[in-house]
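One such given next:

>
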Amino acid sequence: MPTTVPAYGTEAPERLASMADVTASEAALRRFLHGLPGVDAVGLQARAATLGTRSIKTTAKAYAIDLAISMIDLTTLEGADTPGKVRALCAKGINPDPTDRTVPKVAAICVYPDMVATAKAALAGSGVHVASVATAFPSGRAALPVKLADTRDAVAAGADEIDMVIDRGAFLSGRYLDVFEEIRQVKDACRRDGGGAAHLKVIFETGELQTYDNVRRASWLAMLAGADFIKTSTGKVAVNATPPVTLLMLEAVRDFRNAVGVQVGVKPAGGIRTSKDAIKYLVMVNETLGDDWLTADWFRFGASSLLNDLLMQRQKLSTGRYSGPDYVTVD
């Protein structure tokens, strides 16, 4: 395996350039994506189900809960969002349990672009990142110049991370090179004038991709275009993250690193609400990818309600009893 570099590292573009022949034309890209091994749906679902039965107890469970908290992108993406709500969410992300200062901070606060400056100010000096959705989230239905302007505005306001959505219509129509070019241009728009760049998470909306083969193709397509993370869902459709789809994406980043030497993160989002579910995903990461991906740098949960259940379960492990419903804030 080549020496590993992060997708956001300075060596990554050179590594990706070694695959330039794959993306040189629509025909070449189609040939490559459709030449990927087909997904054994029954086997994938069976392995995901088996990993979901692993039992984690006592100290291992306590470690897993703290790890999961540290991997959360705490999210508010509602039309009724206000600066006050965003500041309150930021305070919770920095100090999830005011009664227990040993609780880890979350990884990031995820907001709409117009709330980035508010979140950035509230999180100053905390180490918690600001993530912003962009590119006409959640539909992705806008002209490319609009999507690029959306991204640049969020980066200029201080976003550390950008969560973009692919054009599912283009992908499902087989216009793979259009999707590739859009991701590549959004990646360029993540660069800051003073140097550096926001990290790019590419959302597939897997519930709309129809097949596991399409999820595998979308994963490779996004990684070839320079994605720092690949993400399952927006959380705004009926079918969001599922264990089989996430397992498939974990296998894709593993295979991509083996082939290219570039490490890419994974973010399941939408529908992950309980500590039990989060721990199942962590087991999946550990069994499929090992310790290399078991940090917030490489694995995230997109969630708005998961944190509360993790805090409740954490207190249960500490005290032996469940707290009342007013123990955590309702965001």
